[in-house]
Batch of 2 targets.
Target 1
Amino acid sequence: MALVVAQEVPTSSSMAVPHGPAGVGQARRRMREQLRSHGVPDSVVDDAVLILSELLSNACRHGRPLGRHSDVGEGDVRAAWHVDRTGGLTVEVTDGGGPTRPVPATPSVTARGGRGLNIISALAEKWGVRDDASGEVTVWVLVDEGPQRPAGRPGGRANGRATGATGRAGTIGVSIPVVPGLDGLDLAGAFDDVG
């Protein structure tokens, strides 16, 4: 009997998204379809789609369109995602820069916004900002390091869920203890039907 091991074939996609809310849904649908067709687990796809939405919303709200040197006018931002040979997924959104740097905020309980980068911090393995000489700003997010990288390390993830001494929320200062024997239990959808 021969054992055949399938190796994940890298996949990537890049698309121009209208600077504004109109293209966000189209980008989410395209990402979801492409990642699912390449066998990315649903929990990782869901995280990636939410992260893409947050990044695009921030780019449209705080950044300029690519190639523009003013805050007004039509234009695009660029959304991209890449699955590497280990199955790691990275999402990027590039805009024309803006008056502020992307940093997590501390909004009040009643604030209508300001939570996007905190959501990203909670879902991501890591994220950062890359500046281009032309003034373009790219926010990149490592959504999932992939199944071929060590899982179960403190603060790491296995099967798209937090493991170790603190969960993913530990990246924003909230400690989540792991109960021995229950660290692999996934209750993410347990309360979806609760009204």
Target 2
Amino acid sequence: MNNEYSFKLNHRASYLIFAPKDPNIETAGKCKLKKIKVESDKGINGVFSFNTGHLEHSGGDPLGRITTLEVGEDFDGVKGQDFPIPTTQDVRTNGAFMVIQPGTHALTITYTVEYYGITQEITKTIASRDFLENKYYTIGHTLNVEVPEFVFYFPDTYYMWDAQKWYWYGQETYPTIINTAYSTYPRSQQEDPLRWYNDIRGTTAHRANNSACQSGGSARNMPCANALTWYIYSGDPHFDGTTEWSIGGVKQRGGLWLKKWNKISGKPSDASITNCSTCHSSGITEEGEISASATPKTGRPSDTSDYFFLPAMGYYYNGTLYSVGTGGNYWSSSPESYSPTTVFALNFSSGKVLINSSSNNRPYGYVGGSRPGGAQWFQ
């Protein structure tokens, strides 16, 4: 008579527990699960009654065959959390639950995952089987997330020319949003010696000065200016506005395709990307200065195996990021002989690809160094 009751609930639904894993150590922990879609050959959701002690379709709208679970979304004022995919199954840390109608079902499960801003869908199937009342079924699919072709582009690839460290080295925050300024950019040699540009000058006249790498820091593996003229005139440049890549976890599009160095014909037989004795005949002015420009084709080359891709990563100026997705700026290893503040660089947009030195000031934050993983930008 104390108004206390004891009762036992008999759950009549079937429960799916999703605990996917990804054995790829390159993506595991960095790849996040965003959505799970389950499609059955029979109805799995709808409005049910319990008149018979079991789930019974109450009529009206037909049963649904598709149930979608949004993972990590905000719900009812509660902030959602990231849902990283581990290398091994662990229901306690990454289990996602779904309720379905009991019965015999063949399921098609589509996982939507995100890796550094780029999403992909992975589909798995479960052959027809019984899903019983009040039973839990752990589904531990191995996803084998593919590393997208162009995803490894991070803010630590921007440098002042030939600086020892990247543009935002040592800073806790930095802008990856276009036209947003941060005040912690490098301001002087005295304040930021590791992030400041190299003021070495070229040793001889314009043309000879650019035959070989003369940098010793982050630009040492970038092309010399002579080599860039071969890329521009014989590298069949294509500006592609659709290829996806990411920076700081934000998906972007746009970049330049160029022929790989070993696919470029006519260049000196002993030339390399960083040591090329002669520039292209169209890349030298009457005054002996290097100046090259061309209009890129539009779109992706039909066979990209002979090409490499440079994302349109824009540039930093006074701590602000500009032109991401529309323009690319890549340092060369060749400084100017007459100025300690300018240097040759490759600049491109949808309408032009060129190399010059007069507009490429060393304090700019252009792409330098190497791709994450150690590969060179130019191939």
